[in-house]
Amino acid sequence: MIDHTKVGSPAANWERTWTTRDTMLYAVSVGAGAHDPTDELRFTTDNTSGITQQVLPTFVTVMAAGEAATQNPLTVLGDIAVTSIVHGGQRITLHNDIPPAGSVVSRGSIAAIYDKGRHAAIVLASTITDADDGTPYADIETTMILTGEGGFGGNPGPKASWSVPDREPDEIVTDHTRPEQALLYRLNSDRNPLHSDPAFAAFMGRTRPTLHGLCTYGYAGRAVLATVAESDPGRFGSFFARFAAPVEPGDELHTLIWRTENGALFQTKVGDTVVLDHGEFRLR
Ligand SMILES: CCCCCCC[C@@H](O)CC(=O)SCCNC(=O)CCNC(=O)[C@H](O)C(C)(C)COP(=O)(O)OP(=O)(O)OC[C@H]1O[C@@H](n2cnc3c(N)ncnc32)[C@H](O)[C@@H]1OP(=O)(O)O
Question: What is the DSSP letter of 75?
Answer without folding.
Answer: G
